[in-house]
Design a protein that fits this description.
Layout: E1 3-6, E2 11-15, E3 19-26, E4 30-38, H1 46-49, E5 91-94, E6 105-113, E7 131-139, E8 145-154, E9 159-168, E10 174-186, E11 191-197, E12 205-210, E13 214-219, E14 229-237, E15 247-253, E16 258-264, E17 270-276, E18 283-285, E19 290-292, E20 295-301, H2 304-319, E21 333-335, H3 337-340, H4 346-358, E22 363-366, H5 394-405, E23 408-413, E24 417-418, H6 423-427, E25 447-448, H7 454-470, E26 475-478, H8 500-518, E27 523-526, H9 536-539, E28 544-546, H10 553-563, E29 572-577, H11 590-597, E30 601-605, H12 613-635, E31 637-642, E32 649-655, E33 661-668, E34 678-680, E35 690-693, E36 699-701, H13 702-707, E37 710-712, E38 720-727
Parallel strand pairs: 21-22, 21-30, 22-23, 23-26, 26-27, 27-28, 28-29, 29-30
Antiparallel strand pairs: 1-2, 2-3, 3-4, 5-10, 6-7, 7-8, 8-9, 9-19, 9-20, 10-17, 10-18, 11-12, 11-14, 13-16, 14-15, 15-20, 16-17, 24-25, 31-32, 32-33, 33-38, 34-37, 35-36, 35-38
Helix pairs in contact: 4-5, 7-8, 10-11, 11-12
The structure holds (2R,3S,4R,5S)-2-(hydroxymethyl)piperidine-3,4,5-triol.
Length: 728
């Protein structure tokens, strides 16, 4: 049983195979966070064993029964503003009388098998019924506000998800000013926090730092989850690493402005919260209306970051991604962006396509520049009709010719955007996000369509549907290339303008829900100048993401290593491009570029019609290796063995579903002369089993590979290897 309520202690036990999460009602009223960690089937009430400290603060908190003077000392399950807790609140509303104080008390709960979808939002699900849900209803008896805390327990996945629904049962209108999806008060304070920071072409860099007194925020204010931070973080014991230590991982199924805060208070506890960013957010809730928070994903691991990552990976793969491509092998694609940029003709594309077919590529993706009069990033977003000067027979003609070559056809679109130089803008100047009377700031020469408007969402859905219905298109790269500015909507009243960022995300989700329903056979790849919106919300609609515009193999080590903390290889678009690399000017061997891309979903972004015979042969080998082993990386368990953030060497290991095949990827970042070989020890093999190295037929026991390991030269830059070990 995933969820049990013990009446005698008023405790809710949320149990997965290896973990427990326990909530306790204080005096039958206030939900406290009692425990989150290794599985625990019985614990005494917090007060009886001193699990909550008495505060010595001279502040009396009416909401807090004796012997506590203040809820500031309590591990609160859902902290609200204004009742004595002086840490960051998870919830704050403004009432019509100007008050911002809410007192929430337990009313009732229900436990049931299954899990409802969250209205208007992407959310996790289970196809095999191994999920139970607990809803705890809290109410403010003065204002009539009602808050439902939802917990879904994915027992076999060791994952718990949380979300919050607010309903206004009071007479007046309230304004939600802050609503976190999950809040976690730990007993201990000796933690580090690990988060992902970055920028364009430098996404997912790992930073780990001690949690110290005060509050840290990792957030996005740019309208999308963004390059600068990611809605994912871990709070972990100081001694925790890849294989040991307590780790508490958090993810948010959301693609807009988010906030992760980590706070250490004077009493030595740490509060971690994740949810919509309260910055520039407020939501008006009239009598009878409800507001649903996005869903947070919580993963505890007692064996370091590796276990945490594998739990996130399997959960996102199987309980978040949807559609026929969820488990289906993805096509190997050739994308013309770095090969031609905007400068292409149909015959140039077909030359690339023919060469691609020869080496085993499955699909041709036509990137930016096929529509309107777009020959640079200056115009035509919104004018999604084919440029017949470039493609004389239109998209249909190109699709037909590609099909004759034996390739599927995919296209790039950026449907959320509008160029000032476009017919769409000339016809609908108020359709973009803007503030009347103010300059409309351009970024990449474009503006953002206002997806809080139903007419704009309908236009996008209809336009994309028109293209996908008319042409034989089996893939869309859905791009989004700028951040918000001048945030305003022509239709929203003044007192709802701060709803725009969240309404935008809801509009986007409604479009994607409709399109994925109408075109279930189309593979959508998420892109936002690379990994600028690589988040669980988008994974619900699009099972793969173009991870970064940086295709340099060395940079990819950091980017993909960081992304792998939370996101599985099956979601990570990785392409081989030309050298010198277009982003950093570096020259790396084609072998390393291929090996790095084989860690994700393989593609090429190169003018193959100019590649040499040797290069084409090597690429053909990479593709056939990928096709043979892609299920190991896409569906197997991943182990990070050596971190490029710590040394000049990176190594990953994957074990297939059936434990028969092991792939070991190694990369030298910066070779040094006379350097002794690097010894890489593997993980999670069967000690007494034997494994044969397919490259040289040597046999090794599992215990040898795990204790002694294999050695790799590191006396030269950019040496890479993929070692295939088969159980024998
Ligand atoms: C940004 C993407 O990340 C690139 O891969 C490419 O599609 C360009 N946009 C096209 O404008």
């Amino acid at each position: 049983m995933g969820i049990v309520f013990k009446e005698e202690t008023e405790q809710f036990y949320l149990s997965t195979v290896h973990t427990s999460y326990i909530i306790e009602l204080l005096a039958g009223k206030i939900p406290l966070h009692a425990y989150w960690g290794k599985r625990l089937d019985d614990m005494p009430p917090l007060i009886s064993w001193g699990g909550v400290a008495e505060s010595r603060l001279p502040i009396c908190d009416v909401n807090c029964p004796p012997p506590f003077q203040s809820s500031n000392s309590l591990p609160l399950e859902f902290p609200v503003y204004g009742t004595g807790d002086m840490r960051e609140p998870a919830f704050c509303v403004l009432y019509e009388n100007g008050s911002r104080v809410t007192v929430l008390e337990y009313c009732e709960h229900k436990i049931y098998t299954g899990k409802p979808h969250l209205p208007g939002l992407p959310s996790s699900y289970s196809e095999d019924g191994d999920v139970q849900t607990l809803e705890i209803v809290l109410a403010d008896h003065v204002t009539g506000l009602c808050v439902t805390l939802s917990y879904s327990v994915f027992e076999n996945k060791d994952v718990i998800t949380r979300s919050v629904r607010v309903k206004n049962n009071g007479a007046g209108t309230v304004r939600i000013e802050k609503l976190a999806s999950a809040s976690f008060d730990s007993y201990d304070a000796d933690f580090d926090v690990l988060h992902l920071h970055g920028d364009w072409a430098r996404e997912f860099h790992i930073e780990r730092r001690p949690v110290q007194y005060g509050v840290m925020h990792f957030d996005s204010k740019c309208g999308k989850s963004g390059h600068l931070a990611n809605p994912a973080a871990a709070v972990l014991e100081r001694n925790a690493d890849e294989t040991v230590g307590d780790v508490y991982g958090f993810g948010l199924i959301y693609s807009g402005n988010f906030d992760i805060s980590v706070e250490k208070n004077s009493l030595g506890s740490v509060r971690t919260m994740i949810g919509i960013n309260s910055f520039d957010f407020s939501w008006k809730l009239k009598h009878g209306e409800s507001f649903q928070s996005p869903e947070a994903v919580l993963v505890y691991s007692d064996s370091g970051l590796g276990t945490m990552s594998r739990r996130f990976h399997s959960f996102y793969r199987e309980n978040l991604c949807r559609g026929i491509y969820k488990n289906k092998e993805r096509p190997v694609l050739i994308n013309n962006w770095e090969a031609t940029y905007f400068d292409f003709t149909e015959s140039r594309l077909l030359d690339i396509a023919k060469a691609a077919k020869q080496i085993g590529i499955d699909m041709f993706v036509l990137d930016d520049g096929w529509f309107g009069k777009r020959n640079s990033a200056d115009s035509s977003l919104g004018d999604w009709f084919c440029n017949y000067k470039k493609l004389p027979d239109g998209l249909a003609g190109l699709g037909k010719k590609l099909s004759d070559v034996g390739l599927k056809f995919g296209i790039w679109m950026e449907p959320e955007m509008i160029s000032p130089d476009s017919d769409l803008y000339r016809n609908h100047p108020d359709w973009c996000i803007h503030i009347n009377g103010r300059n409309r700031n351009l970024s990449r020469n474009q503006l953002i369509l206002d997806l809080s408007r139903q007419d704009v969402c309908d236009y996008i859905t209809d336009t994309v549907s028109g293209i996908l219905s008319a042409e034989n298109i089996s893939y869309v790269k859905w791009d989004m290339n700028r951040c918000f500015s001048d945030i305003g909507s022509a239709l929203l009243p003044a007192d709802r303008q701060r709803e725009l960022p969240h309404r935008y995300v809801l509009g986007l989700y409604s479009i994607l829900e409709e399109l994925t329903l109408r075109f279930p056979y189309v593979l959508f790849e998420n892109c936002s100048s690379g990994g600028g919106r690589y988040d669980p919300g988008m994974l619900y609609y699009m099972p793969q993401t173009w991870c970064s515009d940086d295709s340099d193999a060395l940079e990819r080590m950091y980017i993909q290593y960081g992304a792998s903390l939370f996101y599985p290889a099956s979601t990570m678009g990785a392409h081989v491009s030309v050298c010198p690399n277009h982003q950093v000017g570096r020259t790396t061997p084609l072998k390393m570029r291929g090996d790095a891309a084989l860690l994700g979903v393989l593609g090429y972004e190169i003018d193959l019609s100019c590649s040499s015979r040797q290069e084409l042969e090597l690429m053909a080998q990479q593709i056939s290796f990928y096709k043979k082993y892609r299920n190991v990386t896409a569906r197997g368990d991943m182990y990070r063995l050596c971190s490029p953030f710590k040394e000049s060497f990176a190594a990953w290991q994957f074990i297939s579903d059936d434990s028969e095949t092991v792939l070991l990827f190694t990369f030298v970042l910066n070779g040094r002369p006379a350097e002794v070989p690097k010894r890489v020890t593997l993980q999670a093999l069967e000690l007494k089993e034997y494994y044969v190295n397919e490259n040289d037929n040597r046999r090794y026991s599992g215990e040898f590979l795990m204790n002694v390991g294999l050695t790799y030269r590191r006396d030269e830059d950019y040496i890479s290897n993929i070692t295939v070990l088969k159980k024998c």
